[in-house]
Task: inverse folding
């Protein structure tokens, strides 16, 4: 006859078996039985926590793992799970406390090492995270994901050679990791003697069942062929990948254009003429614009200043805005247009304060912090109402260079307008119109940086940029490329180099292929210098 502990362990295994087969309802049923019959069996509460997280029930997951810790307070696996739950709930300070306590603990499995590596990454302690992923790889040397995780972190830290070695190892173990093929292609400029073109084409010819995999390979090929100055072949593969990506999406660019028009209509001059009385906080510097316009370069120049911290691409302002709308006007489903109009009736000082507090504890230790979410261009008016002392920097670039740079970048889940040239042109035109609107209704509020002027005379433009942020000049701002700070944007490799001008007028090499984009921009009245 089985002991009580053996019976509990058998039920526990049944829960995990149900989870492995994707039967969440059965797993939940068995888990409830396990915890009801064996409330003193700590692994059962640990399992319940994993199940709750899998079902996106973070509060319940934390409650369950806390029960496990009451029974076995020093169990490393339980404490790791607690930190994961706290991270899901945004309780960063508590995560930090648990992680600091775990740093001296002996980890026994690759999973534990990986989990701690992920937590350290979330705490922006990437150097330490690399060490734990390395330990995971030592424990499970045939698992490609450990090398992939190391490579991604090393890439963000500017350790390009080490990153390439680990991507090579990833692909040796898992040749069908198509995202690894794509990211590896972006690490450096390939040469005739050292590239992956033939290997990637061979994969495509052999056939790739996964459409997303084919997309990754097409973008990888386009990038490497551009490095080799094979412009026509590069654009052919780029268009193939973009068309395939667009075919798998449900998106209507017209809805985005209607939203931008609604924003302009709602935040008219009269909204600002009546006076702006938002939060008095002067810490935030919002870098806005479209992606691939040089926003990361501007961020790195500013972040080299001792009084500036780069907080990354935060979605905190939108989140706080939505929370205030729901709190004040109820949670019923509303159209985008209704949400835009309701946002203009919020308590602006409270919104500004809530946004700043939501960025803690990462911010607050410098006079300024940078929020570099490009899409904040949509909220420039609301940002100014909520934080009138915040700085807003808009980075712009030649329309065709901007759009080509966007088109050739495979984004994860953002910017759905970027995969069709005509839609991209229409979106760019709407962005340009909205920026004209902001400058008209808020004259002098937004500092504009022209990318071409910045790379032509970086010191002059950097001095103007630093001054616009209310800071004294520091020559370290010109040494931004020497910074060891991590970068997680698409420009993470480029910003490790001194300023270069080779990306200016790159669109000319693809003018024939870009005709749908050019027509869309011209139809919208966008000026195209040099055409």
Result:
């Amino acid at each position: 006859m089985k002991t009580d502990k053996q019976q509990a362990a058998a039920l526990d295994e049944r829960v995990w078996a149900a989870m492995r087969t994707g039967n969440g309802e059965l797993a939940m049923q068995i888990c409830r039985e396990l915890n009801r019959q064996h409330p003193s069996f700590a692994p059962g509460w640990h399992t319940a926590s994993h199940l709750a997280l899998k079902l996106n029930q973070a509060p319940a997951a934390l409650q369950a793992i806390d029960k496990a810790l009451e029974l076995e307070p020093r169990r490393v696996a339980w404490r790791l799970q607690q930190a994961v739950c706290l991270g899901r709930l945004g309780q960063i300070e508590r995560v930090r406390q648990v992680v600091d306590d775990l740093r001296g603990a002996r980890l026994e499995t690759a999973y534990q090492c990986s989990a701690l590596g992920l937590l350290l990454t979330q705490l922006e302690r990437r150097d330490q995270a690399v060490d734990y992923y390395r330990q995971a790889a030592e424990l499970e040397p045939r698992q490609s994901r450990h090398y992939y995780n190391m490579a991604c972190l090393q890439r963000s830290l500017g350790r390009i050679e080490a990153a390439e070695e680990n991507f090579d190892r990833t692909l040796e173990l898992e040749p069908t990791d198509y995202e690894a093929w794509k990211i590896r292609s972006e690490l450096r400029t390939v040469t005739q003697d050292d590239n992956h073109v033939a290997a990637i084409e061979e994969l495509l010819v052999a056939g790739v069942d996964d459409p997303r995999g084919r997309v990754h390979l097409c973008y990888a090929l386009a990038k490497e062929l551009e490095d080799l100055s094979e412009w026509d072949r590069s654009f052919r593969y780029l268009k193939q990948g973009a068309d395939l990506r667009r075919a798998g999406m449900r998106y209507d660019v017209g809805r985005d254009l209607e939203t931008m028009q609604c924003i302009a209509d709602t935040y008219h001059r009269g909204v600002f003429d009546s006076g702006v009385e938002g939060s008095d906080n002067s810490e935030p510097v919002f870098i806005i614009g479209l992606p691939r316009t040089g926003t990361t370069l501007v961020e790195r120049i500013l972040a080299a200043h001792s009084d500036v911290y780069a907080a990354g691409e935060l979605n905190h302002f939108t989140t706080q805005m939505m929370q205030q709308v729901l709190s004040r006007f109820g949670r019923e489903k509303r159209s985008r247009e209704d949400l835009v109009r309701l946002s203009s009736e919020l308590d602006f000082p409270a919104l500004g304060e809530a946004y700043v507090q939501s960025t803690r504890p990462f911010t607050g230790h410098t006079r300024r912090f940078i929020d570099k979410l490009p899409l904040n261009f949509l909220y420039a008016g609301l940002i100014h109402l909520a934080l009138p002392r915040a700085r807003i920097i808009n980075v712009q670039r030649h329309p065709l260079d901007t759009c080509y740079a966007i088109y050739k970048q495979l984004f994860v889940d953002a910017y759905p307008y970027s995969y069709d040239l005509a839609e991209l042109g229409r979106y760019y035109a709407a962005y340009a119109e909205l920026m004209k609107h902001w400058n008209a209704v808020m004259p002098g509020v937004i500092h504009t940086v022209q990318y071409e002027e910045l790379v032509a005379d970086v010191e002059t433009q950097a001095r103007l940029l630093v001054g616009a942020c209310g800071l004294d000049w520091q020559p370290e701002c010109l040494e931004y490329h020497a910074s060891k700070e991590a970068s997680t944007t698409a420009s993470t490799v480029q910003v490790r180099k001194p300023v270069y001008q080779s990306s200016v007028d790159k669109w000319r090499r693809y003018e024939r292929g870009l005709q749908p984009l050019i027509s869309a921009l011209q139809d919208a009245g966008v000026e195209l210098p040099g055409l």
Q: What stands out?
A: The chain has 26 helices and five strands. The beta strands are 284-289, 308-310, 368-371, 391-396, 446-450.
